[in-house]
Amino acid sequence: MLDMTPKEIFERKALRINPAKTCQPIGAMYAALGIHGCLPHSHGSQGCCAYHRSHLTRHYKEPVMASTSSFTEGASVFGGGANLRQALKTIFQVYDPEIVAVHTTCLSETIGDDIPSLVKKAREDGIVPDGKYVIHANTPSYVGSHVTGFSNMTTAMVKYFSEKNGGRTSAINIVPGYVEPSDMAEIKRLATEMGLEAILFPDTSGVLDAPQTARFSMYPKGGVKVDALKKTGSSRATLSLGKFASEAAGALLEQMCDVPYQCLDLPIGISSTDRFIEALIEFSGQTPPATITDERGRVVDVMTDMLQYFHGKKVALFGDPDHVISMTEFLVDLGMKPIHVVTGTPGKYFEHRIKKILDGKVKHANVRAFSDLFMLHQWIKNEPVDLLIGNTYGKYIARAEDIPFVRFGFPILDRIGHSYFPTTGYRGALRLLEKMLDAILDRLDRDAPESSFELVM
Ligand code: SF4
Question: Residue 137 — very low, low, confident or very high, per pLDDT cuts 50/70/90?
């Protein structure tokens, strides 16, 4: 399909081909699902909501619930206020959520609907029942990416719920970033094993990986509770994991409630997980229990066994900026050479951070934020790689260039089960190591002549 991609590179300013990102509202919808009893609401046309729901459903293989203001031509002319009122009325009467999280779309942003005023009026008119909540985030899709949308909705959780009551609890807040439900559970487990009480938000574990019970539940048991969100303003500190997806929420909490925050890389791979554990040590004052040190020891052991295969291998990777930053560092720790690195999300910090990680270890690398898969493909054509790492969309490049491919990040639309296995923490590192080496050795086996088709590696 991509066989005709030309090798010659022409700089493009106003055109993206096969972008390495998607819509802001998708991230906002995913974040909203991480609040218990929450119905995400898309303030725009039905088509946007249908696309966003189906994209998430295809990744998580779970039904994703969301409602829409169902704009038609009339809303485009007169604004979407009446649609939102009608939607809120129906939502609370029929679906009875604890909270509705409204996000905007390109159209409602262009119209300029003032969501807080519309919701205030709806509440005054009794459309929003007492004890129920409506929050909102502006998510114009012509700015940023799905990661920006996730960040905006997570920040809205702080804006609407975090309370400053003068007291301080021993709990810490953790903003886990745009990661899988299993990652959120893993991050929580590590904090708990370190003896900490952690308020993790959003938290999609138990929502988008809920067990099959043969009974439909509109609101699965998982998700951070509103009561816990209110307490985030009294916590002793916030750990924001990932600058792009999580820092804004931590910064707002500090500004609103004087809760100091630290922003760390996503704990993917050994170095960034070490830094995460070090931060937990600092907060808990405890040394890590044997469960955690054993997990780390296993990763070091497996890395040692695998280094002979990884050393010097050239890698191309793309995806969400926080994921790619941590993954690049992990690859460098393994002696690999990430030579083509792309994210579709804009932000100068990305290129700055990646170059810092590669400094002195990889001589020449192409690194770009706000770029696309077309550019990545062209780079690969000019300097081939041994491994490609990224979301499902990478499979077309992998096929065209015959490169071993590891699926990593969001979205993964053509495989099932990935969202149940974390890539964060030491357990996640172990899984990534296995996936990468399997891909490399499968290729070695495929291409081996009969005389060196080995049983034992
Ligand atoms: S880019 Fe805008 S119009 Fe298109 S689906 Fe996303 S929010 Fe809707």
Answer: very high
**In sequence order, which residues have a C-beta less than 8 Å from that of residue 77 and are 6 or more positions away?**
none
User: Residue 63 is encoded by which pair of tokens?
Assistant: 């039904």
Note the pLDDT tens digit of each residue in 231-287.
999 999 999 999 999 999 999 999 999 999 999 999 999 999 999 999 999 999 999
Closest CA to 175 of 207, 146, 203: 203
* Cα-based distances in Å from 184 to 73, 95, 393: 40, 27, 24
- In testing the pocket of ligand 1, which one of 49, 51, 141, 148 has its CB within 8 Å of the most ligand atoms? 141
CATH number attached to the domain at 24-161: 3.40.50.1980
The token pair at 55 is 């994209």
Fold assignment, 290-451: Rossmann fold (3.40.50)
Measure 161 CA to ligand 1 centroid, in angstroms. 28
In CATH, what is the architecture of 172-284?
Answer: 3-Layer(aba) Sandwich (3.40)
Phi–psi pair at 401, nearest 5 degrees: -105, 0
Question: For residue 457, what pLDDT band results from cuts at 50, 70 and 90?
Answer: confident
Instruction: Point out the ligand 1 atom lying closest to the alpha carbon of residue 45.
Output: 8
Q: Where are the domains of the chain?
A: 24-161, 172-284, 290-451
pLDDT over threshold 80, residue 350: yes
- Altogether, the residues listed in the chain come to a count of 457
Q: What is the DSSP letter of 71?
A: -
Write the residue with the smallest CA distance to atom 6 of ligand 1. 23
| Residues 16, 286: Cα–Cα separation, whole Å | 49
Adjacent-strand bridge partners of 102: 41, 136
Pick left, alpha or beta for residue 223 (phi over 0 → left; psi -120 to 50 → alpha; otherwise beta): left
Closest to 332 in 3D by CA, of 295, 296, 365, 373: 365
Q: What is the DSSP-derived secondary structure letter of residue 337?
A: E
Q: What are phi and psi of 35, to 5 degrees?
A: -105, 135
pTM of the entire structure? Answer: 0.97
Structure tokens at 320: 């969400």
Nearest alpha carbon, ligand 1 atom 3: 106
Identity at 450, one-letter amino acid code: E
> Could you read off the pLDDT of 59-80 as tens digits, one per residue?
999 999 999 999 999 998 899 9
> Cα(322)–Cα(177) distance, rounded to whole angstroms?
8
Ligand 1 mean position to 82 CA, how many Å? 21
